[in-house]
Every structure is written in C-alpha cells, then in structure tokens.
Amino acid sequence: MTLEPLLQLPGVAEAVERARIACEELRWHEAYRRRWREVRAEAGLRATRESASLEGARVPLSVVRSLATAGGSDHEPVAAGALRATVVVEELMPALGARGAAALPPFGQLLARLHAAATGGWLPVEHVGRLRTDLPPADLTGLGPAPSGEALAARVDLLAETVTSSQVPALVVASVVHAELLTLRPFRAGNGVVARAMARLLATTRGLDPTGSVIESWSLNPYLGAAAGFATGTPAGVAAWIQACSTAAVEGAARARSVADGVRAGALPGD
C-alpha cells in the first residue's frame, strides 16, 4: 500500500498544511519550555475522556483523573481501559526536543499491547490482544463487513508495512492507520480506543505533534460517517476523512493551548 497518491486528492495537501501550522504554533507556547510533561499528562487525561466517550463511556474529567490516581476500573471499565491505553502511548512518546526517530515496537506487537491495555478486565481473556479469527467484530457495526482470519491478518501485515515504509506527512499516516483500524476492526471489541491511541502515538512520533498534547474531540455520528466514507475506498471518501482528521488536529491544538495556558497560570481549564 502506497500513501503518496493520497497527497494528490482534492483538499488533502491543504489539510496537511493546516494541521502542520496549528501544531507548529502550539510547540512554541511558553509552557512547553520546562513544563511540557505536565501539559502532556493533562492532555492525556482529556484525550482519554474523549476516546471513552466515543465508546459510550461518558464520564467527567474528574472521574478520569480519579482513575489515574486511585483506580476504580470495576466501576468504569471502558474509561479505565482507555486510560491504560493512554499510559502505554505516553510511555512510548519521545521527550519533547529529543533527537532522532522514536523506536516503537513492531506494529503487530504494539497493536496487541494497546488492545490488552484497553480491554483487559472487561473483555473475555481469550479475545484480549488477539486478532479475530472466525468471529465478527462486536463493535463499530455501522462500518460494514470486516475481514477475519487469514484475510484480516494479511491486511494488518500490509498496514504494518505501510507504516514502516511511508515517508508522507504524519497527518496522512496517522489518519490512514486510524481509519484502517476502524475499518478492519482487528479485535473482537475495543477497536476504537486502539485506533485513536495508535493515531495519537503516530502523530507524535512522526513529528506532527511533538508535544504529544493535541486533544482531538469527535462527535460520534460525524466520526462514524467520515470513517464509513473512508471504508468505501473512494477518493472522495478517503480525502474527506483526512480533512476531518486535519480539522480535529487543528481544534485539538487549540484545546492543548488552553491546557498549556492553565499549566502556566496554575489554573487548569474546567471540564
């Protein structure tokens, strides 16, 4: 799979540039000079809340914060799983200002690790961290049929090769991986949390968001609609998805700036 032709789709190059500018401007906020770890950690809590919300686990930020400090996964298992996936992602993110490319685990191993973090404790153990074989996905059912067994494994391998070999801008790589994981739904459940966590990690490690603090927020119906458009494989559907991801990144950079302002001032923005 080659991603270079996607840059020629209508609106994609402009979308890439919009996201690049928004994230680059965020990078120079004063809070990132010495307190970038605080901003990243706070952004991670908010990204967790947004991801959990798309799974139907709508919890206030205070609950996510309590999960981070005191556990409570029995009461909020999906949100707790999304938080564990966030922890995995942030452990793999390079320090702000680090030189050289980030060394990530092989793609398949990383997928399994994220899935185990996201679903351990609420998904039957035989499905945790393991690609589906004969069962269909139990989530994201509005995105059409998904491959299984050998066909699924081959698609995941192809996606892994694409991530390794692609030199296109980070927005394109992260967007395609995000949507492909939603389309393939490689696991029995928990696919959305894994897809969003992987996209956030790739956006950071590939340089779009070196701060690791962009907070994407999606509304469920437009999100699924754009993902369904990508799943059709049509140029218009793929371009619209990448543009939607760009918009989410631009708006997410603005949310991150608000958090950075709060960290600098000692008064974080509310829910």
How would you describe this protein?
The chain has eleven helices and no strands. The longest helix is centred in the C-terminal third of the chain and has 31 residues, at 235-265. Helix 1 runs parallel beside helix 11 (235-265). It has one domain (4-265): Fic-like fold. It has 271 residues and is mainly α. The chain has helices spanning 12-27, 31-34, 36-54, 61-70, 77-92, 107-119, 149-165, 170-184, 191-205, 220-231, 235-265.
Order of helices and strands: HHHHHHHHHHH
Top-tier CATH class: Mainly Alpha
Low-confidence stretches: none
Distance between the termini: 41 Å
Strand content: under 5%
| Total domain units | 1
Describe the protein's topology.
Blueprint: H1 12-27, H2 31-34, H3 36-54, H4 61-70, H5 77-92, H6 107-119, H7 149-165, H8 170-184, H9 191-205, H10 220-231, H11 235-265
List keywords for this structure.
mainly alpha; Fic-like fold; single chain; 271 residues; 0% strand
Summarize the structure.
By secondary structure, the protein is mostly helical. The protein has helices at residues 12-27, 31-34, 36-54, 61-70, 77-92, 107-119, 149-165, 170-184, 191-205, 220-231, 235-265. The model has no long low-confidence stretch (mean pLDDT 95).
